């Protein structure tokens, strides 16, 4: 029989960016909060002198153990889903801070178009522009309404950047200046300028200078060591929950973190959550944590899975299009890119930072005319210098042997003579892309695994080809001697890394029939449950999701405080 603990004001499931922000805001307001994290404790000291590419980048030290819990995948409903046995397409973080520890730090705001994509597309191009099976929808909140929360996240994290000339209006400049511009980045910016495009420095959570935020948290500037993605930052220069918001919550005395605590059910009765059931993974003991408010802030798959296992909310049925939990799963299309090879120039590609780069949004959102194109949206185009670590980076021109003397010779020759221009393309939602519980495979506790049904569509193929051609044009303008770029997008592959930007499944909206949560991330079907994260996205934009997740977390914290005071559904 499960042990029942004393009741708390709020229990948070998953202590990453969203959970850490909400814990910080609620505890500063005097609420007692318990944070349940199924992974281990983390601190900055854990990363001192651990520039170990094999351990962290290739053996996934910071990631979820797939032998204990994974996901299953199928490209369509006609075939059986199989478990993901080794990491490939995306990397699921584990432990205190979650994916906020191993992220790169690229901190873009979504475009105003992203939040009203369906209405704006229909208004400009007509209903026929949206395929019948495409289920994109407006968020129920506009960019202008979310802007103050973006600003709050950037101020907390000390984001370094400069204004995006094609982005939404800002209430304040970035709190710290942009990062250093390398020679390669300068070449990209100058080439883009000659092509009448609008480059700007990537907004970065890798600090450009020492910074103290409004909560009194001081952090040091980035050292440009090139070990950001898949690594923790030993300097604390990369904003992550462990060095920003979690210490603030701890300082209040109102926050209790319990690591190694795997939440398996949200307990509820009569349309209200009563608490959560979790397993102490060190002892196997089952524990009930009662709470007035339950906040679900784990990763996308875990948010959806927990709701489905708890039978909370209406499961999505792809046959009818009804239901909301699991609906509108979307990914990111990162296949439109160009690699340029330079014979007479060399670059210090080993140095860099996770968010060091120059971007442009001329081909993102609806910043360009789609009238004659067979797709909507687009993606950000960037030249980044994130640190070309030796094991994972050995670019060679097309036509080179895949192994042997020629491969080795050219790998060495082009190690510092190759540059890449990449894109992050938006991913539109479709009726037949969804998340549900796998009927066959289970985890170590006997609970059904999360199943993904997804593949690239013609929309993605057309968009990727278009973006790759634009990347190649810029690379040629930069003077590369040879340019290789994507010619055709194949099927989605679960085993090829692209990004960790999974979205949807607990989507946000203004009406309960077509969404799972309102714009405060409050569940329509249980008003004392808040589900926060990229699971709220009705579709994915052409950017990294973290800044938007952070903004939604600050808005959710505001909503939770309102709910604690007055109760009921928030408007």
From TrEMBL:
This is GMC family oxidoreductase. Keywords: FAD, Flavoprotein, Oxidoreductase. One of its GO terms (molecular function) is flavin adenine dinucleotide binding. Residues 442-553 form the Glucose-methanol-choline oxidoreductase C-terminal domain. Belongs to the GMC oxidoreductase family. It comes from Paenibacillus arenilitoris. Residues 221-329 form the Glucose-methanol-choline oxidoreductase N-terminal domain. Pfam families: GMC_oxred_C, GMC_oxred_N.
